[in-house]
Specification:
- The chain is 59% helix and 0% strand.
- By secondary structure, it is mainly alpha-helical.
- It has a domain of 78 residues.
- The radius of gyration is 28 Å and the shape is elongated.
- About 14% of the residues have low confidence.
Length: 160
């Protein structure tokens, strides 16, 4: 085998190994992006539940305020107040379940309970996708060298 044949053969092997690494990285990127999409959907559901609970709290506060006027009455004696309290508790339970699902997804455990779409096969050529950069994590602090709490600078009014 001539020198150029050896060089060509080594280049082919290196290129093949490089493409295999790229394919593996692309597959990991697809898996991570699917995971992040599921977490994003769950976080949005948590957000909408928080907004719904906020509306119910506002309504509940108004009703309780009305019971604080003479003739005074026990707020829990009104069925609409107990109904609102139960709705808020249901929302809190659902939020806790959604947060648990997020943790399970992060740990690679149980998948999201309610999947909107079945898993689809990656389109041909998708294995060549470029992996998104992951955010850099902060380095752990050495014991005894903790950062002081951050405070925002005081806002000064401009001189009149």
């Amino acid at each position: 085998m001539s020198f150029w044949d050896k060089v060509t053969e080594e280049l082919k092997r290196a290129a093949q190994g490089g493409w295999e690494a790229v394919r593996g990285g692309a597959k990991l990127a697809v898996e991570k992006s699917e995971e992040m999409a599921k977490i994003g959907k769950l976080r949005y559901r948590i957000y909408t539940n928080h907004k719904q609970a906020e509306k119910l709290f506002n309504e509940l506060g108004g009703m309780v305020y009305e019971t604080a006027k003479p003739p005074y009455e026990n707020p829990l004696s009104r069925p609409e107040i107990t109904r609102l309290v139960e709705e808020i508790r249901k929302i809190e339970d659902e939020i806790a379940q959604l947060e648990e699902e997020i943790e399970n997804i992060r740990k690679g455990g149980v998948e999201e309970k309610e999947t909107e779409e079945p898993e689809k096969a990656a389109p041909e050529g998708a294995e060549h996708a470029v992996a998104p950069e992951e955010p850099q994590k902060e380095a752990p602090q050495e014991p005894g060298k903790e950062e002081p709490p951050r405070t925002e600078p005081e806002k000064k009014d401009p001189p009149a």
